[in-house]
């Protein structure tokens, strides 16, 4: 797809006000967009899988990648995490209390292998079926939660952040997280509230300048209040998909998720692509004083290299 | 049992040096005491239960307390946690980042009902069978982990702390934790390393003065190193007993345990008695500059009232 400069000039309505100064009348508002929008398009997901994604806001596909391919991807991750040129750069984020790398961003530009993976039909095709258009990569990263040292993160909707801080207008994005280590009960697996993707929970508190420098380590702004979370968990429960390395978790941009600290010796890592629709490209932030840096927000057709 | 002043005067050998200035030659040393020492004594535990405790260092008894008795105990806990006279006292410890009560100590003195419970044969009788003598209560507390706000704690052996900071000579103590709320995967249940009670892992770092003011909120001294933890988890694994309110967890004083944050709306609470042998009463701390306050360390036959 080509860039659409006219879309940038058009005034963009804020369908999801957030980072509010005072508590809103309602704990949440209903989602305005369909969840699965490309059932008629080509792609790897079955009708049953699309139904499950629509209902829960996520879909876990165990053992999608195995054997030699998995081994190569794990080696690639290791090489990227240990790359001397990537240390102490803005796109590599360390743990709040140590110098261990927690997230490495823009990995589909940093690595040819991961650039190819981002275009792989098993990932991009699934995204096409879900968002209903040819996807582009809005963000990519490797998350790494070291044994014993990896902290968790609070409940949040990614869309809430991308809308407030990056100017993503609508809920037309999906994340694909390929787990590269076994995920079990004790190494801080992703927890999700199934069904929460149907509700947008506005968050209290204005966004500080350069919030990402803090929020990528430990998010404090853009976190739903306890009352909304309590009602949603009481209604929908919590699920934590677990499984062997090579499983793929697809999850909607607005599903609430969190994770706990890694209290086991086993690291937990994944490679993560966010697919967005070109007609939903990011504009001016809806609730933040400045744009975030380029390693967090790639426009359609972007090229990016570390500065 | 009566106090034994002669035991106080005898020089006490330090069988378990810890809080070391430099790394020891070995990651751990073997335990010197038997685990189950009163098989011939009266008590509620079966031979199979004692075998399981001996092997794993803990035993979970689901649904020990039910119905009206459980309801009354939950009401008693609530009343204690909400008691105005207990706020901002040294024996009530708040969360590291909020004013919510995390632990309330000396509860068998604060509450007649819990004082009776501490003597209840289902608890004290089990302790007798394990430690091999008529037990006294070395410490008691209610732990409360509020929904969303409750933090976890790092891997540690209670005995390591009691030995270093309270002067408990030997491994002759057992904890009885009655869970008063349902324990599930997402509200930060206790995790244990089964079998780790057979090894004493000395910890690095000298104990600061008044360490308990910090350690009861978030423990940083008295935490085993990552190499010992990795080897122990790789050998023994991790277990997290879960179940309905009313279950009882008995665990050895030296079994390594930890817990994660509570990411669910459901609070997690328990009432907790530590039973010790009168001939193992606490002496001078083995590795700390001062004794800890009385609400943490009760001698045999003690009476205690809040000051």
Automatic annotation (TrEMBL), chains A, B:
> What keywords were assigned to this record?
Dioxygenase, Iron, Metal-binding, Oxidoreductase
Q: Which top EC class applies here?
A: oxidoreductase
| Entry annotated with the keyword Iron | yes
Supply the SUPFAM superfamilies for this chain: Clavaminate synthase-like (SSF51197)
**Cofactor(s) the protein requires to work:** Fe(2+)
Catalytic activity line of the entry:
L-ectoine + 2-oxoglutarate + O2 = 5-hydroxyectoine + succinate + CO2
What EC number(s) does this enzyme carry?
Answer: 1.14.11.55
Quaternary structure? Answer: Homodimer.
| Job description of the protein | Involved in the biosynthesis of 5-hydroxyectoine, called compatible solute, which helps organisms to survive extreme osmotic stress by acting as a highly soluble organic osmolyte. Catalyzes the 2-oxoglutarate-dependent selective hydroxylation of L-ectoine to yield (4S,5S)-5-hydroxyectoine.
- Name of the protein in its database record: Ectoine hydroxylase
């Amino acid at each position: 797809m080509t860039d659409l400069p006219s879309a940038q000039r058009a005034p963009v309505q804020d369908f999801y006000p957030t980072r509010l100064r005072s508590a809103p009348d309602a704990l949440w508002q209903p989602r305005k967009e369909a969840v699965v929008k490309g059932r008629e398009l080509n792609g790897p997901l079955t009708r049953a899988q699309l139904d499950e994604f629509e209902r829960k806001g996520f879909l876990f596909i165990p053992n999608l990648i195995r054997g030699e391919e998995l081994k190569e991807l794990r080696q690639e991750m290791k090489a990227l995490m240990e790359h001397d040129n990537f240390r102490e750069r803005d796109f590599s984020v360390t743990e709040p209390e140590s110098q261990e790398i927690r997230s490495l961003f823009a990995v589909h530009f940093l690595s040819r292998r991961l650039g190819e993976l981002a275009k792989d039909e098993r990932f991009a095709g699934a995204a096409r079926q879900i968002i209903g258009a040819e996807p582009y990569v809005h963000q990519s990263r490797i998350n790494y939660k070291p044994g014993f040292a990896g902290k968790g993160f609070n409940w949040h909707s990614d869309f809430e952040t991308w809308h407030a801080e990056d100017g993503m207008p609508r809920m037309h994005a999906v994340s694909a997280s390929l787990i590269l280590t076994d995920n079990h009960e004790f190494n801080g697996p992703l927890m999700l509230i199934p069904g929460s993707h149907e509700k947008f929970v506005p968050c209290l508190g204005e966004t500080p300048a350069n919030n990402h420098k803090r929020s990528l380590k430990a998010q404090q702004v853009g976190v739903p209040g306890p009352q909304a979370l309590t009602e949603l968990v009481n209604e929908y429960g919590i699920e934590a998909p677990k499984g062997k390395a090579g499983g793929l978790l697809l999850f909607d941009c607005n599903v609430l998720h969190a994770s706990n600290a890694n209290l086991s010796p086993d690291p937990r890592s994944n490679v993560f692509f966010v697919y967005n629709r070109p007609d939903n490209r990011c504009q001016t932030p809806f609730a933040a004083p400045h744009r975030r840096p380029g390693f967090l927000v790639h426009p359609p057709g972007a090229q990016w290299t570390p500065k």
